[in-house]
Amino acid sequence: MNITRLTPDPTGLVDWPTLSNDKKSVVTVGVFDGMHRGHQAVIARVVELAKQYDAFSVVVLFDPRPDAAHRYAAEHNGMDLPAGTPDPQALSGVDDRVRMMRDLGVDQVLIVRYTMAFAAKSYRFFLGQMVGKLGMRTLVLGQDAAMGKGRAGDVKAIATLAAATGVFELDVVDDRGPGQVRIPLDAEPHMPTEWGEPKDPTAGMGKAELRAWSKKHQARLHRTWSSTNVRYLLGQGRIADADAILGHAHAVEGTVVHGEERGRTIGFPTANLDEASIVGYLPVDGVYAGWLVDMGPAGDGDGAAGAGDARADDRVASDDKARIAAGSPWRWPAAISIGTKPTFSETTGLHERVVEAYAIADDWLELYGHRVRVEFVGFLRPQVKFDSADDLVAELGRNVEETKRLTA
C-alpha cells in the first residue's frame, strides 16, 4: 500500500499525483474515524470493485477531521487548525485508520490536509479532479455521505452529476447498520455507578416509555453504525456495545512515562501514559479489562502523530501488524484505569486524570519511553475511594481475575 500526504496550496488546490497513464481507479472519500463496520463495508466495496475492474483501490482520507477544523475556524476568524493540535473527540488516529485500510487491501491512501480553502471548493470541482487526476471510474460512498462547500454534494446530487456527465459511476453502500438509535442531544460522558458492563437505558422500553425518555433527554436519531454513536457509548462506559459497532476493540495509543510508582508498592505496577501523547478517544473514568500492546520505543515514527503530522505513515510501515496481532509476544491482558486515583488523591493532592494499565505478565515490563496501545474489552467498575490500601489491593485482585476471564 502506498501512502501519500497532500497539503492544498493557499487557494485550496491539491497537487494530486498521477497514479497511472492508463489504469483507472475506484475511489472513496472521507474521514473514517474509528473505522467502524460501516466504514469497513465502504472500503471493502472499493477493494472488491477495483479487483473486478483491474483498477487501483484508492482512499482519499481527510485530516484533521472536518468537524474539528470547522469548529476551530469558527472560533479563530476562519483560520486553519494548526498542525499537531490534539483532537480529543477523534475516535482514532490517522495511523490506526490507515493500518486497517492496509489490512483490507487498499492500494493507495491519499491523506489530504483539510484546510478552509480546500473546504470551500465545490463538490463538482473536487470530483472533476478525481476523474482528471486520479482516473476515477467509480466513486463509492456510504448512504449519508456529503462533500464539498456546504456539504452540497450529497448522494442524490452526485448521482445526478454522474448520470449527466457519464464520466464516472456512483456506487452507494448500505453503511447504516441495524437501524437507528436515540442519543441525547447534550450527552456528556457519565461514569456508571454500578460494577459490570452498563446496559442500554432504553432496553425493554415500550413506545410510550421511549418517547418520554427521548423527550426528557432531547434525544435525536443517529445511525447505529456511526462515529457519533461509538463516542456516546464510550462516554457511558458501554465498551462491549461500542466494540460491536467498531468490529474491533476500541484503542488509544500513548507514550509510557514515570508516574507516582505507587503501583509497585502495592504489587500492581502500571504503565502510565503521558496524557499529552494520547491519540484516540478516552472512555469515561473507570476500570476496564483489555489489552496492553508494546509498540516499541517512541521515536521519529512513534505513531504519536496528530492532525497533519507527517510521521503517521512511518509507524504504519513498521512492524505494527505483528505487534498488534492476537498471540503476539508484545501483547498482554491488562486491567486499565482511567481517572484521578480517588483513594490517594487527598493524600497526594494530585487530581489529574491519568491512564494506567497493569499488564498481566509473568515478569515486570520495562516500557518507559515506549509507545503502547491500550485496547478496551469491557467495563469492570467505577472509580471509587477505598477505605485503605489493603481494600484497594483486594479489589485490584478481583479486577485482574475478571480481566483474565474477559480476555481469555
From TrEMBL:
UniProt region (Disordered), positions on chain: 185-204
Domain Riboflavin kinase, chain residue ranges per copy: 245-408
GO biological process entries: FAD biosynthetic process; FMN biosynthetic process; riboflavin biosynthetic process
Compositionally biased spans, kind Basic and acidic residues: 185-200
Reaction catalysed by this enzyme: FMN + ATP + H(+) = FAD + diphosphate; riboflavin + ATP = FMN + ADP + H(+)
PANTHER family linked: RIBOFLAVIN KINASE, RIBOFLAVIN KINASE/FMN ADENYLYLTRANSFERASE
Name recorded for this polypeptide: Bifunctional riboflavin kinase/FMN adenylyltransferase
Lineage, top ranks: Bacteria, Bacillati, Actinomycetota, Actinomycetes, Bifidobacteriales
